[in-house]
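Contributing new records

If you add data, match the layout below exactly. Sequence lines come first and carry their own label; structure lines follow with theirs. Keep one chain per record. Anything else will be rejected by the validation script.
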Amino acid sequence: MSLDETVQAAYCARLLALQTISQGKRKTDIKYAVIKKIKWQVEETVSIMAVPYDANSEERTVTCKGKHLHSLCGGKLKGRWIAGRDVQEKHKDMIEVHFNISIPQVAKTAGGQDLLSLHGFDGQECLQIDGRNERTAIKVNHRLKLDIITGEDTFDRTTGKLVDRKPLWKTFRAFYPIYIDPMVVGDDIPEGVFSAGDPLPIYEDAYIMPPHYESAL
């Protein structure tokens, strides 16, 4: 949580890159991967699901009727991160980068959006799934996307001098799940989300019913 009213959620990220040191072409050469830039994005995937509603059927196959992927926010870091040169260090081949991620209030997460306002979905298609025995559900997932741009430096093992440098070596992409849980109050829930006529779930199996302690005395 953040005390900044303009920030919806804030995170401290820690990137660990392992096995960043390798043998060079010559026995005296050692190559180091160098992280030069990190681009990050928080993405949201909204899926419209069709959930069968048939009390007489035991099989309920949930199908996806459509997806929408969009970016909530992003940023980038520039620098020069390289593993330690001390060969006695325990994790000498590891690069560690710390950075902050902030999701602003202006980012339109699904928790603050109406289902019908999602770009790419028509309201009639969302609410009138094929057949009357299917209900519509919305599933929201968030993930952190990282694009890591690296270079490569080659050093002489004996002298420690730089013998070769590649400004751009490889680009890596990685995805990590991230959880955004905005708090919704009663006034923010649109009318019609919960039908008044829907009964509460009840116990249908006598074996999982709570015991009657009075009859056991």
